[in-house]
Amino acid sequence: MKLRLLALSSLRFYRRHPWQLLLAVAGIALGVAVFLGIERANDSARRAFDASSTAAREQTTHRLLPVAGLMPESHYVALKRDRRYVDSAPVLEVPVTLSRAGGPPVDVTLEGVDLIEETTVRGPRGAIAGGDPARLLTEPGAILADDTIAALFEVSAGETLTLRAGGETHEVTVIGTIADAAGSPRLVADIATVQELGGLPGSLSRIDLRLDPTAAAALADALPAGTVLVPAAAEDQALRQLTRAFNINLTALGLLALVVGMFLIYSTISFTIVQRWRSIAVLRAIGLDRRELLAKLLGEALVIGIAGTLLGLVLGRLLSAGLLELVLRTLDDLYFRRALGAAEPSGLLYLLSAALGIGATLVSALIPAVLASRREITSSTRSRLERGARTLARRFALAAVPTAVVAVVIVRLSESGLWPAFVALFLVLVAGAMLVPLATHVLMRRLERPVARLAGLPGRMAVRGVTDSLSRTGVAMAALVVAVATVISIALMIASFRASLIEWIDTTVTADLYVDIDPGWAGEIEPALAAIEGLPDVDGLSRMRLARITTANGELSLRAQMPGPEGYGVDVVEPASAAAETLLAGDDTLLMAEPLAYRLGLRAGDALELPTVGGLRAFAVAGVYRDYNTAGAELTMALQTYRRAFGDDALTSIGVHVAPGADERGLAAAIRDELGPERPTRIRSTSFIREVSLEIFDQTFRVTEVLRLLAGIVAFLGILSALMALGLEREREFAVLRSLGMSVRQLFAQNLAQTSLLGLAAGIAAIPLGSALAWLLVHVINRRSFGWSMDFVVSIDAMLAGVGMAIAAAALAGIYPALVGARADMGLAWRDD
Amino acid sequence: MTERRVIVAACVAFLGACLALGGCGPERDEGRAATGAGVTGVRYLAGGEDSAGFARATERRAFVFPADHGAHDRFRTEWWYFTGNVFDDDERHYGFELTIFRIALTAPGPIRESSLAASEVWMAHLTVTDTARRRFQVAERLSRGAAGLAGATPTGEPGEPVVVNVEDFAMRFSGDSVALEAADADFGIELTLAGLDRIVAQGDDGLDRRGPEPGNASFYFSAPRLRVEGEVRSAGRAPVAIEGTAWMDREWGTSALSPDIAGWDWFALQLDDGRDLMFYRLRGRDGSTSRFSGGSIADAAGNVTRLEAGSVELAPIREWTSRRTGVTYPVAWRITVPDQNLELGIRPRLDEQELDVSVRYWEGAVSVTGTAGGEPVGGVGYLELAGY
Fold this sequence. Notes:
The complex is a heterodimer.
Chain A: H1 2-16, H2 18-57, E1 62-66, E2 71-72, H3 74-80, E3 88-100, E4 103-113, H4 115-122, E5 128-129, H5 134-138, E6 142-146, H6 147-153, E7 160-165, E8 168-178, E9 186-190, H7 191-197, E10 203-204, E11 206-209, H8 213-221, E12 227-231, H9 233-275, H10 277-285, H11 290-335, H12 347-374, H13 382-413, H14 418-468, H15 470-508, E13 513-516, H16 526-533, E14 538-551, E15 554-562, E16 572-574, H17 580-583, E17 589-593, H18 594-600, E18 607-612, E19 615-625, E20 634-638, H19 639-646, E21 653-658, H20 664-675, E22 683-685, H21 686-700, H22 702-729, H23 731-739, H24 744-786, H25 796-822
Parallel strand pairs in A: 4-9, 6-8, 15-20, 17-19
Antiparallel strand pairs in A: 1-11, 1-12, 2-10, 3-4, 3-7, 3-11, 5-8, 6-9, 7-8, 13-21, 13-22, 14-15, 14-21, 16-19, 17-20, 18-19
Chain B: H1 3-21, H2 36-46, H3 48-51, E1 77-88, E2 93-104, E3 120-130, E4 135-144, E5 150-152, E6 162-166, E7 169-174, E8 177-183, E9 188-194, E10 200-201, E11 207-209, E12 217-233, E13 240-253, E14 261-271, E15 276-284, E16 294-298, E17 304-308, E18 313-321, E19 328-337, E20 342-348, E21 354-356, E22 360-372, E23 375-386
Antiparallel strand pairs in B: 1-2, 1-13, 2-3, 3-4, 5-6, 6-7, 7-8, 8-9, 9-12, 10-12, 11-12, 12-13, 14-15, 14-23, 15-16, 16-17, 18-19, 19-20, 20-22, 21-22, 22-23
């Protein structure tokens, strides 16, 4: 009987206030949807990533690499004739340029493989469409194009492509297409064909091997001259770490959405309690004890939670499809690796999401429900309630301080690790939210006079309305501040990153034109370079050699440079304000990219051993420089140092510094002439490099932008629900005002002004909180995730956008209650009390 | 015994490249290799474009050594086939097979700049049958024929050994003997086979016809009774010294099989009375025996009698179904050669001697019991069953 009565009273309340119910359900549904969407996308991406990396490496256990440059194929033949090393496959990768009529040339990788060895050593590749694969062996110019290239050049089996490689132009026949694989767009051909096209007969880039531990040890003891053996997993491990970091970041964002959803529930339940206080008091008076009241309120929350969660699961499933595409693309852009495709996540994820959704609802309903059940029946007057709210606001504000301190301690104590960093992030967020009610109160007190001077009594009333209903506005404000702060922090983080990236590109890309040196260049190169240096409009040249070396820490790329007039183009972060020229002047010194230094735990002054022609040699790490390349496993040294240590005199490219105002196009043509027609080369302008880099960057962060949008939607719902409840509750107040002679228009304006004021206040409060969160994202979370350091950029735009969003959300959310209030039934004012 | 290997080889040409690319997806079912894809293989070979530029076996020729131990690049397909039955000091039986196939995808063209360039695919199979431990062990090597990865050394100087290899599997012909060396992780052989001086030219004095058209033929000879010495390693154990007998088949040509041939049954038997019998039956899809089937019986004195398709009666007496592939093979037989008054029962040393590699077939050691002219006779041999 009692139970039925209780259920009826709940039912009746929500029937009268369907919007309230809907918003609460929507809030939790969105929270669950965003969480599930992200996790599902994450999970699929992770599996796809695992699948693609195991597909590529399931069989390859080791790589035999040349210490520098290329290695002779005789090493491969020798391995193949030894039973222990029979599972090996040769690879030769050559950069080539594809030209096409009516479009710019495109740089791709031409990968030479032995198709017969592919399955035994490297695992199956994607399917080949069209064409008899045997033709790759028998026809000198036969190639396979991956789907990307096939689509870009609109070629199908049987058609030809014109490519430039090894300093010559070749016509090749596309005999079929192959699914996109790891890395940049590529052409695949037989190893012999690639040797011929690249002008590199007898050379290999590396040998992939499948070795058992005994064979690996045996080979390591008897390495062919000038080679190193590396486990294939080392490189993979670094990638895996980065991906994990990326996934954790996304998960944290998903959880954030759920937290905002919790605020929604919290505010909804609090409102319903306040609104129903009279009926609750009656129920209590007729014998409902505290525990029963608590059960009733939590029961309601449970129903809302289940409904919201179910809806959220459906929405999340839909959402994940879109998110997955973005996540995969980001992984692809970040790591230059093509995931194979989505995988269906386990059912466990749905269970987890459901548990989180329902759990979050109950937890957020618990506080208001407990407070309500404890409250004395007689304390039901509004004024007492509000006084209580102000006390509570003060207590919360006091509690915020230790919470923030705990956050700082956690960051300080944990040197690395992402989860502590995120815990700290959440604690800061919560601390910020706890400060909001008191801050609102104080802010409104301050605003009262200036607003009154500007807008008279209605203005004063608008401001007073906020403080006088702090029990509700406090929560609404907190929800809004949390959401807006999140949005601002992400925007600030992206802005910081983007600005740092632009600066990094500007520092790194010193020359105006980059000229690739043909790897098959035979003979003396310096006379040709001297000729280029002598061209009018050329201010100077920088010479660069890129090599891949293998160390105990895996495969590293080594940039050996003879700097041009603008120096090395590295942004040294450690030691502070040191010049690369000075640091690299000494013998056996190098500079290390920041992510690598972070990963290896090395600092300026430490040493790193590298395999040189004379055996392992220790190099001094003279400094650490910024590097936003994803793998980031890069070292820089002076070209002389490199040549001495590695006995490799070749060059990979030269940078041409062009006099200001010179015609780059004309100069490029002149350089081509100097090199001679027999050495056509690739010349890239740096403006192009900058453009492409930023494009990739923006694409990478598109998924983050989408999440920002979602957080915005949740925030909007939060404020809408809070303000509507507030407005509805004040129906009687409106009626009084109306009957006192306030016009509908005035009432509408006053109500709207009040909600906008709330939005403004929330926006302003979100700025310091958002900045604090952004600081954590930039300096702690990004650093721990990727090893990147970046300059914190205070982007006024991002902050203003946040404030604007808060005001817009609040104003929009205020329209409906204002309309309702304006139409208030004046009779209400005098009924009853 | 000829076409069967043409088919095997052709399958490799087609499937090998296909498998290597992993591009065949679900079709990577070796079950198709000898049946469906076998037919594909035949068609592949029968295709006119592929025969273009190759030499053909049209006239009888004398075999010349050591040159004919090496490769005959002008012909499309070629193989070196060794099978043998050997025993250790405790009279435990082992069987072995080491085979190398050369399959040219196109006729030799101009020499290319890259020494890895190849127009031939080479394949090798190694098996060791460990009868006492009831184990059958298989390993395969597939390689391009280039740069010493796989191939045969040019046969210039007489007295210089001819080396044929696919990666680490190698055969070294030197004088009248050949050394075989091939191993996988857990098993392998290191053997010397003597007696290459006793050669049996198969078919019409070494020219074995495949079809009615001129040139649709192979050069084919056998060394039917080689004396084997050396070591066999099995089941991851230490090598054991063995002795026994082996059979070598050598064949090359540019022939093609009729598409209505489903497969073949090949017998190579060494009888106690000193006679060696080889017979292959080409099975039509309707179960009939092709008129291009045939074989020979050679006695110790060197007299060779040709066996025509109709002169041998074959009856399967027991079948075995592979748990691995689900294919059923007739593994025990009764062979009757009325003209020779021979009646032989053929039993496998081990039922499970199926090779499930790039190409699927059954090839295993067998024992022979029966009567010759009414007198009891025994023997050893190898049986090959393909197209099941």
